[in-house]
Specification:
With 107 residues, the chain is of the alpha+beta class. It is built from three helices and six strands; from the N terminus they run E-H-E-H-E-E-E-E-H.
Length: 107
């Protein structure tokens, strides 16, 4: 198995990036994976566009956003991100999305 790269993109003051990181770590431990986790601070709107940032926090595994369908989006923004999950709106990605992305990344 390979070691997936997890990037957590955020801006300073985001209330949800630490919780997203905790979910990544917990799910990785359940899967018995040790991903390389990188925190990527997005300092401004220009960087948001350059980094294809969909809001804070954005979680990517091996360069792919964990949210299904996010690759087709182009609404790059320097703002908080709200995810639409099966359980309603959330400030962090769905745990199942992270699990699926980590499983793909480790294959």
């Amino acid at each position: 198995m390979s070691r997936p790269l997890v990037e957590i993109l955020y801006f300073d003051g985001c209330p949800n990036h630490e919780a997203a990181g905790a979910v990544v770590e917990r799910v990785a431990a359940e899967l018995q994976l040790e991903p390389a986790i990188e925190l990527v601070e997005v300092p401004d709107a220009e960087a948001a566009t350059r980094l294809r940032f969909l809001g804070s926090p954005t979680v990517r595994v091996d360069g792919q956003d964990v949210e299904p369908g996010a690759q087709e989006r182009a609404d790059f923004v320097f703002a908080c991100r709200v995810y639409r999950t099966e359980d309603g709106f959330s400030g962090q990605p769905d745990e199942d999305w992270i699990r699926e992305a980590l499983t793909r990344g480790a294959a």
